[in-house]
Design goal:
alpha+beta; eight-stranded antiparallel beta sheet; 186 residues
């Protein structure tokens, strides 16, 4: 196991090859939230900052936890060779379409239907470990269900989805979007 104060070029190359990553957050008195993420949604902005584009789903726990506590861990693992587990430890925050930095930040990503926010993480430390217990697997293809669901929605339906949920499953408040992401500056 090795620790690094910032992301290196080797870390960047590894992350760019991974089709899935995992996000973990927690807040005092709340459950731990652990979510898998895919699609083209992760970016390394600089050696001390990463971000990922969040598409609406069934909940918004990460938003609530970051608002309450700020701590976040991102984990990538290799399902091919060489074996590796890679964790990013940091402090995160939600950037919503109504926020001043949205336009510049959103320009770093490929647009995805159903985008609701971008989580920006200030990197405290990164860790690598062997990954020898992770199985070999191959990516068959990305699921299109969520993208198709969001692409079919009217602006009114999307606006309604941005307005919920107002709290996490443990009752923590969620900071909600008030502007459709693709309508910023329109």
């Amino acid at each position: 196991m090795d620790f690094f104060p910032a992301l290196t070029d080797d870390h960047r190359a590894f992350v760019m090859r991974q089709p899935v990553f995992f996000v973990a957050t927690a807040a005092e008195g709340a459950r731990i939230n652990l979510s898998p993420k895919g699609m083209d949604s992760f970016r390394m902005l600089d050696p001390k900052t990463v971000a990922y584009l969040d598409v609406g789903g069934s909940g918004n726990e990460t938003n609530a936890h970051l608002g309450a506590d700020g701590r976040i861990t991102i984990m990538f693992c290799a399902f091919d060779q060489p074996a590796l587990i890679f964790r990013i430890y940091g402090t995160g925050r939600a950037v919503l379409p109504q926020d001043a930095e949205w336009t510049d930040l959103h320009a770093q990503f490929t647009p995805l239907p159903g985008t609701r926010q971008i989580f920006v993480i200030d990197v405290d430390e990164v860790q690598t470990s062997c990954g020898w217990g992770v199985p070999f697997m191959t990516l068959e293809r990305e699921r299109q269900t969520l993208s198709k669901y969001h692409a079919r929605q009217s602006d009114a339906e999307r606006t309604g989805e941005l307005a919920r949920p107002v709290a996490s499953i443990d009752g923590l408040p969620v900071r909600l979007g008030t502007v459709l992401p693709d309508r910023v500056g329109a």
